[in-house]
Every structure is written in structure tokens, then in C-alpha cells.
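Late entry, evening session. Most of the bench is empty. Finally got around to the prediction I had been postponing all week. Sequence below, unchanged from the version circulated by S.P.
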Amino acid sequence: MRKLLLVPLIAALGLAVAAPAHAGSVPPVNGDALRAVMSSLPKDEVSGALAQVSGTAGSWRGSGGVARIGTRQPVDPDGRFRVGSITKLFTAAAALKLDGEGVLDLDRTVQQYLPGLLTPDFLPITVRQLLNHTHGIAGPGLAHKDPTWFLEHRYDTWDPAEVVRMGVAQGPQFDPGTRQEYGNMGYLVAGLVIERVTGKPYGDAVRSRVIEPLGLRDTYLPGRDPRIRGPHAHGYEQTASGYVDVTEANPSLQWAAAEAVSTARDLDRLLSALLRGDYLSPAQRTELLTVPLPDAAHALGITRIPLTDTLVVWGKSGDRPGYNNGVAGTLDGSRNLVYSLNTLHMGGDQPPTAIRLITAAFS
């Protein structure tokens, strides 16, 4: 069995690592290893989990744990979940499509599209730099993954332009294009740019250019709706006084960066379309997978992840309180993995169960 590079993997799924340019094949899917993960979920870490593996080297799907604490209701492998920052894949894909139509130009700047949004001390920032996290705009400084903050503000409605101004007020963090720092801010600004060039809500572009063409029937952008529609496992925060259900939350703070709700089947289809097939043109796929700096890992909404010294996958992680998720796939179509965990502690490092699932899926 090949040894997975777990330390770099944790970093890649959360932030950034360097990676070799080559990719290797994967072994046949190991259903026994995946079932073993699902049947031994740590009760102090996750309450439930689901996963789907697909590709030319085999397929598997299953779940473990419970959909609601205090019941025996199993997690539905087809259930919906908050995908968190995997939303960036949708926003980046919509931007690529708009660029291909001539509606949006990735080389034009925020200052050209949204004059007055950035203060004069900001150098020109291109749309591409928004999408690959080299823009230098600070985050809003809100502790949105802290349990106390979240429980106080979970139903608040946020104006994305105002959230952006909170980051802009902190001044440039670095010159555009010189560093890569992962965060939501670039995608909030990109959402505003999409609205400016289309004259419609950013979600319309995602629906018409990504969700509908790819037939993602169980994916939607909730806007201000705090609920998850349809079958889904609940998310919880474990506290000294018991479990607090954190499933409901107004996702307007995350907006174009992390608001989407989807399923494993839909995310598998999205990832396959982005990495392979004719949904993107060759030039668009090259754009999608271009990492901007030698020491960076993030391209346009997607991350380059070295699993072994011969195997590189492309994917994205995402989390919201009660949910930790990931997608990853090979360029040759041999393996895709989608998973969602119902975590019991929001924020923090990549859950060990996620690492176990990734190891089982790609070893």
C-alpha cells in the first residue's frame, strides 16, 4: 500500500501546500476499508457521515452514524448538507463561463467593475486574483466559527457589500499577485462583480451556467433561508450542557463563498465536469487548474493536493458549523471522492475521520 502524505494533505484541504505536477493512478476501490471507517465513527468527534467514491477504478457509497442524535435514524447517503467553501467551485465555474461568453473578463480589475468599492491605497486587483486568493483584501474579522459568536448571530442577515467593506477598511494586506492567502473575501467580491456584469443576483449565474446545465437537481443556493430543504443529517455542537443543534443558520454571511447546499451525487457530477469532459473548454480547464505562484496550491476555486509522491488529486474542502466536507478527484477519471461529516465541534483542524476516509478512498 502506498503511504499517503497525510500532513501535507491536511494542509492542502484547509490552506495551501506545494505539489508536484504529475499524477498517478489509483488502486481498485477498497469497500472494506470505507465500511470500517463508517462503522467506527468517534462519538466525541462526529455524529454521522456519508461518502461516495466513483470512477473507472470502482465505486462505493455508504454512511454511518445517525442523522439525529437521540434516534436510530441512519444518515441518508443521498441527503443534502451545507457544503461550505465547496461553494467556491460553483462561483469559479460561473465566472469561467461568463468569461467565455465575453460578459466577464478575468483580466479586468475590481476598480474597473466596482469603482469606489476599494479605497485608493489598493493596487489594481483582477477578477482572477479574487478567485485564486492572491488579492490581498482582508477578511471581515468575524469569529463566525466560534460557538459563542455563532449561536448569537446564526440567524442574522448580512449584506455582502457591507461585509466586503469591513475587510477593505483594514487596508491592503499585500500587493496583489505576490502572495496567496486563502479566505472567503475574494469570492464575496467576485459575487459582487458577477452581479454588476450580469445585472442579476450572482445566484442566477450559478444556476443558469452551472447547476442547470449539469443537472444538479439537489443543489441550491439558500440565500437567507436558514433551513436545509429535503432529507439531511443534522449538525451539532457538543457543549458542557449537552448537544446543541446547529443545523439552521442564515448563510448570507458566507454568500458566494460558502452558502450552497448540495449532495454527494451532485458534487461528484460537478467535480467530474470541471476536471474532465466538455463542460469546460480546454482553455477554461487550464485556467481553472492554474496555480498562480510556485509556493501556492489554490487555483480557481480548486486546490492541488499531493497524496503520495506519484499521486496528485484536485479538490476542495468546506465546512460550516455541524458539517465538514470534501471533494477530490484524479484528472484521469479513475477516482472521485465526496464526503460529508456531521462534526461535533465547529472550526479547528481537519477531523481525523476525514483523513481516515481519504486514506481509505485513495489507498
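Two things to note before I forget:
Residues 5-23 have pLDDT under 50 and may be disordered.
The beta strands are 46-54, 60-65, 81-82, 236-239, 242-245, 261-262, 303-306, 312-320, 323-329, 336-343.
Will write this up properly tomorrow.
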